[in-house]
Amino acid sequence: MEVVDTPTPDTGARLPWTCPHQPLCPPAEAADHDAASIRVIHPEQGWVLLCNGVIRFDDTGELLPDGRAIPPQRDGSRASA
User: Fold this and answer.
1) Are 24 and 18 in contact (CB under 8 A)?
2) What per-residue confidence (pLDDT) applies to 76?
3) pLDDT by residue (tens digit) across 11-62?
4) In CA terms, which of 60, 65, 67, 75 is 20 to 30 Å from 49?
5) Long-range pairs for 57-66: beta carbons < 8 A, 24 or more residues apart
6) Distance between start and end Cα atoms, the chain
7) In the chain, where the domains are located
8) pTM
9) CA separation for the pair 4, 17 (Å, rounded)
């Protein structure tokens, strides 16, 4: 199983997350990281948290677990990190 290091919302401490899916979700560094399953949905705030720790925003921008930001893709396609 892949372990993803994700921050806790209350303290910011980093805890390991183990992907329970079969097959495993692609890691945040993979070109197909958007294929990961959704763990948390916040449509009222415009974002989802994927199983691999990537936060995907409604405007197609992304925040990777290591803090790197991927800008929105205005043409509708997604660029990989």
Assistant:
1) no
2) 54
3) 555 556 678 888 889 999 999 999 999 999 999 999 999 999 999 999 999 9
4) 75
5) 64/28, 65/4, 65/5, 65/6, 65/28, 66/28
6) 22
7) 3-70
8) 0.68
9) 5
